[in-house]
Amino acid sequence: MSSPRITLIHATPVAIQPIVNTFKRLWPAARVTNLLEDSLSGDLAAEGKLTQKMIGRFVTLAHYARDCGADAILFTCSAFGPAIEAAQRALTIPVLKPNEAMLEEALDAGPRIALIATFEPSIPSLKAELDRMATGRKIRIEVSTRSVPHALLALHDGRAEEHDRLIAAAAAEVGECDALILGQFSMATAAEVIDPVPGRRVLTSPVSAVAQLQRLLRA
User: What is the DSSP string of 75-140?
Assistant: First the structure.
């Protein structure tokens, strides 16, 4: 499949450009379309938990993308793991959670994992997903987490350099680890300004997700 159609489903507009740019750089032949539903994050924050109604909305979005001709779907919103899993069960085409490929790479790197996120409600979902994956591999991991909400506010205000700088500062404060995870798609640009640490991999969702989609659709 040389030119697959891949639908990206977003809960926030700041997630769009990082993944679109990654496709252009790593898989320019893919036909990428974007579907934005920006009430999802606000509704999750207001509810304080993922409801069955919200899960149903994710399944509806996935069906819509499939009906529009998508060969695969990538959700870019990291706070909605169980809802995306419901969409995976509902469809036969590949439906990817935003971070699953990145989390697999983190587990490959070693048991000490640090997670930085700018949208704090995504942290419990990401950590739970890491723990489930580690249990499936029968390995024990140590996960530390850090939230940088001011970075997200800066990004929404158009201060991208400040966003990246705040994340880099948080990364500098993280102790020794085998993998440093940037938990939102919108954080990918910050990877370029994080000081390298020997033995530590810095992982971003867009790069890992594009590589996984290539493997799935070229198999």
Answer: E--TT-HHHHHHHHHH-SS-EE-TTHHHHHHHHHH-SEEEEEESSTTHHHHHHHHHHHHHHHHT--
Domain that holds residue 21: 5-98+207-218
Residues 10 and 43 in one domain: yes
Q: What is the pTM of this model?
A: 0.84
CA angle, 67 then 70 then 75, to 5°:
105
Q: CA-CA distance, 9 to 180, in Å (whole number)?
A: 25
Query: Domain holding 10: CATH number?
Result: 3.40.50.1860
* Total tally of structural domains belonging to the chain: 2
Residue 73 forms beta bridges with which residues?
7, 95
User: Closest by alpha carbon to 19, among 159, 188, 182, 162?
Assistant: 188
Both structure tokens of 31: 């036909």
Q: Mind listing the pLDDT tens digit for each residue in 4-31?
A: 999 999 998 988 999 999 999 999 999 9
Residue 146: strand, helix, or coil: strand
